[in-house]
Design goal:
The protein is α+β, with helices and mostly antiparallel strands. The chain has 2 domains: 44-226, no CATH class; 252-484, MetI-like fold. Helices cover 48% and strands 14% of the residues. The chain has helices at 2-34, 82-86, 92-97, 228-236, 253-284, 287-301, 305-328, 336-360, 364-372, 377-388, 390-405, 409-414, 427-434, 441-448, 457-484; strands at 44-52, 68-72, 102-105, 124-126, 135-143, 151-158, 169-177, 188-190, 197-202, 216-224, 241-242, 249-250. The strands form 3 sheets. Strands 4-2-1-6-9 form a 5-stranded mixed sheet, with no helix packed on it. It has a 5-stranded antiparallel sheet with strand order 3-5-10-7-8, with no helix packed on it. A hairpin with a 6-residue loop joins strand 11 (241-242) and strand 12. The longest helix is centred in the N-terminal third of the chain and has 33 residues, at 2-34. It starts with a helix and ends in a 7-residue tail after the last helix. 38% of the residues are buried.
């Protein structure tokens, strides 16, 4: 017997060590793959144009016939690519023929000495760089013969999908050189503080194509302000997840908050129902009823989550849409509220089963003492049994929460798939968030992991999401284990 006892103890210790090593190996692997997120390069883009002096306030660089896009993004990774070669800068004759007498051009150079009249293009595309490396882009401005107004406007606006407030650089637009004979004060504009605008310039006319290089020279500069590590971390803590845009955003807060909110709502539903079910099975139900009800409960716990997801999609989502759609402005039954309800269905058997085991562990002497003091059955349950078992009940709830927090299929099927930031600034906005499409951490990983380039920045951010989910789930499980190990009858 002693040998069997020692063998059993040794097996337990070895199993514990193997589990601990497996957890550490998983943590190391996920953390190592997450480092690819910190190899990020950073993009930005602006569109500049010269507008005629009589242009109205609604005119923008995007509407100007000869505007220039200066962009640092993945599409410019090849430097001088076909995008630039297809769109050379307009010649003086072209401008006169099309009655568009003001234009900008880019020399694809960062130094005034490198400007050449025979290599001018509409746009300048550059390859993204780490946050420690800056970029300087030159833009020329001129008018063609026939332009008679005394002024023209330099206008600027961000490129489509680029948000200057998210830029990792300090972006400035400055007048680098004025044409000979033109009197104008130098200016420098912070493009993050003033992302759109226009400024008046004295007219300067290029008489020939060669003279285009002698006009205004503007510079758009991206000035480093931080390291790649801190710039990446700042982006990760952002509120927008849009990794497939040409100017990608990797903010995980909407995903983490959505997952947390779905889990909290699910447990608010599952906890009272699960505890009530456990109380009924443990303290109220007839033994014969318990014999078939307990296996039925455990059978529900074994239902695959994908089945619950499709149950929610086919029955719960249409029902919520019919009952609450008009009152709450629900656009679709696939939303945060529907997801939370089905996650609660997933958690109820877990909470009920664990809680029932905890209630059974409460010493019978506590119940007998309560009855001896004159408490009836209900009072014994609420004033003695539940308080004595509260540590185990809390542990049961945390185990259910950990299961819900990491659920993938239900969230994938029912959440709607849109990464939106939940609103908390007013009850109405919060209610609207509950019935809006959302996306959580687990389903984002499942949806996007199969479509990313191996060891890319996007790949690294998905593993970073996995690391966050792994750590939160481990913390919740450890808390449940610690609380559950307390004596259930300790008040």
């Amino acid at each position: 017997m002693r040998r069997l006892g020692r063998l059993f103890d040794t097996t337990v210790y070895i199993t514990g060590i193997m589990v601990s090593v497996a957890v550490l190996v998983m943590f190391y692997y996920i953390a190592r793959e997450s480092t690819y997120a910190f190899r990020q390069t950073f993009s930005w883009g602006y569109r500049l144009a010269l507008l005629p002096g009589d242009a109205d306030s609604s005119a923008t660089p995007n509407s100007a016939p000869y505007s220039s896009l200066v962009a640092v993004n993945p599409e410019g990774a090849d430097g001088l690519d076909e995008k630039e070669e297809v769109f050379p800068a307009p010649t003086i004759q072209q401008m006169q023929d099309e009655s568009a007498l003001v234009a900008t051009a880019t020399p694809l150079a960062s130094d005034l000495s490198q400007i050449r009249a025979d290599t001018l293009y509409r746009d300048d595309w550059r390859s993204p760089k780490p946050a420690e490396e800056g970029t300087r882009v030159l833009v020329l401005g001129y008018a063609a013969p026939g332009y008679s107004l005394p002024t023209m406007y330099l206008a600027w606006e961000p490129d489509h999908s680029f948000e200057p407030r998210l830029a990792s650089y300090r972006l400035v637009l400055r007048l680098l050189r004025a044409p000979e004979g033109v009197s104008i004060q130098p200016f420098e504009i912070d493009l993050r503080k003033q992302p759109t605008g226009r400024i008046a310039l004295p007219t300067w006319v290029a008489q020939t194509d060669a003279e285009r290089t002698q006009g205004y020279v503007f510079e758009v500069a991206a000035i480093p302000q931080t390291s790649t590590f801190w710039a990446t971390l700042r982006g990760v803590l952002g509120t927008e997840w849009a990794p497939t845009l040409i100017y990608p955003r990797y903010g995980i807060l909407p995903l983490v908050l959505a997952t947390t909110l779905m889990s909290i709502l699910a447990m608010l539903i599952a906890t009272p129902l699960g505890v009530a079910t456990a109380l009924y099975l443990s303290e109220v139900a007839h033994p014969r009823v318990r014999e078939w009800l307990k296996p039925a409960l455990e059978l529900i716990a074994s239902v695959p989550s994908v089945v619950l997801g499709y149950f929610g999609l086919m029955f719960v989502a249409p029902a919520l849409q019919a009952w609450l759609g008009q009152a709450l402005g629900m656009q679709s039954g696939r939303n945060l509220l529907t997801t939370s309800i089905i996650l609660a269905v997933l958690a109820i058997p877990i909470v009920a089963s664990v809680t029932e085991d905890v209630l059974k562990a409460v010493p019978e002497s506590l119940r007998e003492s309560a009855i001896a003091l004159g408490l009836n059955h209900s009072e014994t349950l609420w004033k003695v049994v539940l308080p004595a078992a509260r540590a185990g009940v809390v542990a049961a709830v945390l185990i259910g929460a950990a299961r819900v927090y990491g659920e993938t299929m239900i969230v994938w099927i029912l959440s709607g798939g849109t990464a939106t930031m939940p609103a908390f600034h007013s009850p109405v906005a919060f209610a609207q968030s509950l019935v809006s499409s959302t996306r959580g951490v687990p389903d984002t990983i499942a949806i996007e992991m199969g479509n990313v380039t191996f060891e890319s920045v996007h790949y690294g951010h998905l593993f970073l999401l996995g690391l966050v989910l792994f750590c939160l789930t481990v913390v919740v499980n450890l808390a449940a284990l610690r609380i559950g190990r307390r004596q259930v009858w300790r008040v």
